[in-house]
Design a protein that fits this description.
229 residues; alpha/beta; Rossmann fold; six-stranded mixed beta sheet; 6 strands; 36% helix; binds 2-phosphoglyceric acid; isomerase; 2,3-bisphosphoglycerate-dependent phosphoglycerate mutase; phosphoglycerate mutase activity
Length: 229
């Protein structure tokens, strides 16, 4: 079985401004680019040879993957992109300041959406200009798969589905795989891989720009996992 390296994109311009981002295609902040460079240096100094890379469709994850591969001198590595690795769709909260939303909706609802498992944020209406249907990046997809707001459970379905569809078969070939994705899409994958309960996943936070290595036995049970240093 191969190895998996999970990395959350470096800080984005909206992470810095404390704004809900979700599927909004916001780029890395300068400090996020620096975090990605450091992640690439760690891959290089740990003598890791990446065979295959995956990223979401969002530029903060894509740029993180590119900077890592460039810094690690592995720009030739085949990189595959999927919307199924995108951040959780944050519905009508996208573009809103997190502290202001907290004040508006109260702590209980805020936390049940933000770190709970099956509570979605308020949905976008079909006609909202933030509906991914109006984003040409998703024009090849059937509109019925495009979310207007997701719970972590919804995100988990598409992320785990993609893991088995595209990533696990490559791990089975013994490849070392880098996945550059997002706080919540990675929490969904980590919940599945580490068998974390839907209650416990509320406490899991994924740091920006820290590559986390996973090794497996031949049944895809984790044998070790640790952040690269
Ligand atoms: O805004 C978002 O899309 C996510 C990740 O930055 O936010 P949170 O960590 O609050 O789920």
């Amino acid at each position: 079985m191969g190895k998996l390296i999970l990395v959350r994109h470096g800080k984005s311009l909206w992470n810095v401004k404390n704004v809900f981002t979700g599927w909004t295609d916001i780029d890395l902040a300068p400090e996020g680019m620096e975090e990605a460079r450091k992640a690439g240096e760690l891959i290089k100094s740990n003598l890791i040879e990446i065979d295959l890379c995956f990223s979401s469709y969002l530029k903060r994850a894509i740029r993180t993957a590119w900077i890592i591969l460039e810094t690690a001198e592995m720009m030739h590595v085949d990189t595959r992109y999927s919307w199924k690795l995108n951040e959780r769709h944050y519905g009508d909260w996208q573009g809103k300041n997190k502290d202001e939303v907290l004040k508006e909706v109260g702590e209980a609802f805020f936390l049940s959406v933000r770190r709970g498992y099956d509570t979605p944020p308020p949905s976008l209406s079909n006609t909202d200009k933030r509906n991914p249907e109006f984003d040409s990046n998703y024009k090849a997809l059937d509109t019925s798969v495009l979310p207007l707001g997701e719970s972590l459970k919804d995100t988990s379905k598409r992320v785990v589905n993609y893991f088995f569809e595209a990533i696990a078969p490559e791990l089975a070939k013994g490849k070392t795989i880098l996945i550059a994705a997002h706080g919540n899409s990675l929490r969904a994958l980590i919940e599945y891989l580490e068998h974390i309960s839907s209650d416990e996943i509320a406490k899991v936070e994924v740091a920006t720009g820290v590559p986390h290595m996973y090794a497996f036995d031949d049944k895809l049970n984790i044998t070790e996992h640790y952040p690269l240093r």
